[in-house]
Amino acid sequence: MEALEIARWQFGITTVYHFLMVPLTIGLGLLVALMQTAWHRTGKEHYLRMTKFWGKLFLINFIMGVATGLVQEFQFGMAWSEYSRFVGDVFGAPLAMEALLAFFVESTFLGLWIFGWNRLPRLIHLLSLWAAVLASVFSAYFILVANSWMQHPVGVEMVDGRPVMVDAWAVFTNNTALVAFPHTLFGALAVAGAFLLGISWYHLWRRRHDGLDILAADGTLTVGDPAGARDAVDHRVWLRSARAGAVVAMIAFAGTGITGDLQGKLMFDQQPMKMAAAEAACHDGTGFSILSVGNLGAQSCDDITAVIEVPGVLSFLANGDFTTEVKGVNTLLPEYQEKYGTTLPDDAMYGERAGTEIDYLPVMEVTYWGFRIMIGFGAIAAAAAGAALWVLRRGTVPESRWLMRLAVFGILAPFGANAAGWIFTEMGRQPFVVAPNPDFSGVDSVFMFTAAAVSPGVTVAELILSLVALTTVYAVLLVVEVKLLFTYVRGGTASAMPELAHSDDDSAPGAGGKDDGDVLAFAY
């Protein structure tokens, strides 16, 4: 393996892992803020319990997200110094604003929220949470501004071979960013909705399994009301959370579908090869491939056949009609070669790669299946949420253990959709790290080949060492996060409010038993 390939693996592994934290942090943060708002307005106990329980899970994920996110910016200098030089004059503004919001506003107001329970006035405490959550939303926007510039460079002019920002407004209102932002938010809400639904389903099932809630043959539900954390209020916590999660998941899927359609139309215009690869569309046409067979990994269209194809749908995705033909790989390939060359330039920055042939076709296995996994997992999660909402009309869930496990594992579906969409977006841009903007032409074109972006002074051995080290650290962090989440989820509301626990129940963190000394107890 050469340095470029290892550097890409390193960035891909760390970025995908970090991105698992991002949607849950954003989506769950917004929902927790709404829960506390409901408690502030009504004073009802179940909203307080919801806020504290889901708020603790939000904090665990937020902390891990910060820890894993720090590595992303360091990698720009570690393995991608040439890329940093090329985009530095553009990325400076959005990344600086993201840092100010992420590390100052978020940390300050989240600290006030964590330590402000029973110390700050209730309204100020609530506003502190909203400030932290909205700051995370805005910081996500600034990151998307930077990423969208890589997908569609605007607002710059070339000076000495480097893009220099001349129109900040154009960069911050890049149409690619304006569409990617709501798409990302809806994706985050889909993750949070499934998270609420799956965990709440588990706790409602436990209540039935333990004989607390009894559903009679005529559909009458008797809710158990013992003293302590698992009283009737506890039932309302999980029922309200489950229903809210299901509704949010369905609305989020509709939102991702609408914004995804807008995003797809921009991609067809801005990065036509990416979308052609996503469809394994070798020839011009109008049909959307539901299933194509052949060797997608061969980077050739010679033996790929569409088995199931819906006429007109590809045209609708690209142009909003059902008749306009969309260019396929065989048409686009010579156009790319004419515009950007057939081989990498004979330049020192390319090293031994100078003069090698450029493959403008992204890895079709990744783009084709990534596109379908993104849509498929999202649709499965939304359908499951709809079915769950119907089941929850009785005020509880079935006693089936397997159905409970399916609900819990269903949490992973929107995570998979988000990750697949991100991988598709990034790998589909290859062989460019900054994709060319069709509106630019001639010597003023703004683009950068990925082969030119890697740090020239970094050796293969150094990259392998950092890859192994970072992957190992991230694996350890994954184990830590999963264990923390499992521990606090199993503990229920008592894990966030130990005062609710029975005196003889020392299983919940912070309940005063064997796990007393809970490291997160300070939060409440």
SSE layout and pairings?
Elements: H1 3-42, H2 45-78, H3 81-115, H4 122-151, E1 156-159, E2 162-165, H5 168-172, H6 175-209, E3 213-215, E4 221-223, H7 232-270, H8 272-278, E5 288-293, E6 305-310, H9 313-319, H10 329-340, H11 364-391, H12 401-409, H13 412-427, E7 432-434, E8 448-449, H14 460-491
Antiparallel strand pairs: 1-2, 3-4, 5-6, 7-8
How would you portray this structure in words?
A two-stranded antiparallel sheet has the order 1-2. The chain has a two-stranded antiparallel sheet with strand order 3-4. β3 and β4 form a beta hairpin. With 524 residues, the protein is mainly α. It contains 14 helices and 8 strands. It is 63% helix and 6% strand.
Give the tags.
mainly alpha; two-stranded antiparallel sheet; disordered C terminus; 524 residues; 8 strands
Backbone structural class? mainly alpha
Whole-number radius of gyration? 25 Å
Strand content: 5-15%
Number of helices: 14
Number of strands: 8
Q: Summed up, what is this model?
A:
The protein has 524 residues and is mainly alpha-helical.
